[in-house]
Design brief:
Its main location: secreted. Belongs to the clusterin family. GO terms for molecular function: misfolded protein binding. This protein is mainly α. It is about 60% helix and about 10% strand. Strands 1-2-3 form a 3-stranded antiparallel beta sheet, with helices on one face. Helix 1 crosses helix 2 and helix 3 packs across helix 4.
Length: about 180
């Protein structure tokens, strides 16, 4: 503790007044000395003085104080344990939330964009006629999902443009393509 020196410390001599002076010093500096007791020689000396020999009430107070100090130290240790466990749990939770965001963040982006009227826009459909009519060629479809960049997908030639499943395949593949682009 800055400002303390051994010269300032009252010494206990056999005289009764000197003991009172030491006890007064303990009362004035007890909070600071409790914090510094392991680092400050004066605090160790002050706390080593036993004022309880002069007064029975002081002895009881000292015992209660020491009990309270032990209890406070026990609660401090328990608090530190709980705090450490909580911090570890929060780190684990944060890692899980980051993982979920990476895996399913596209869903929230999709939900946020559903207010737009242009959910799925088919830009072009290219189906070339095969030279051999027994063979079917795949159909190239360019789509735009929400405000994403347009991208192309392929619908198998076995599904005709008039088939109900054609648009199901386009919608499914468009959503998959949108998801893949947003997750990257």
């Amino acid at each position: 503790i800055s400002g303390f020196s051994f010269d300032q410390m009252p010494t206990a001599t056999p005289g009764h007044n000197d003991n009172r002076m030491v006890c007064r010093e303990i009362r004035r500096n007890s909070a600071g000395c409790l914090k510094m007791r392991g680092k400050c020689d004066k605090c160790q000396a002050i706390l080593a003085v036993d004022c309880s020999q002069t007064d029975r009430d002081q002895r009881r107070i000292k015992e209660r104080f020491e009990d309270a100090l032990r209890l406070a130290e026990r609660f401090t240790r328990r608090y530190d344990e709980i705090l450490k466990a909580f911090q570890e749990e929060m780190l684990n939770t944060t890692a899980i939330l980051d993982q979920l965001n990476q895996q399913f963040g596209w869903v929230s982006q999709l939900a946020n964009r559903t207010r737009n009227d242009k959910l799925l826009k088919v830009i072009t459909v290219k189906s070339s006629s095969p030279e051999d009519t027994s063979q079917t060629t795949d159909t190239q479809v360019t789509v735009q999902v929400f405000d994403s960049e347009p991208f192309s997908l392929t619908v198998p030639g076995s599904v005709s443009l008039d088939d109900d499943t054609f648009m199901d395949i386009v919608a499914r593949d468009a959503l998959r393509g949108f998801k893949d682009n947003k997750v990257e």
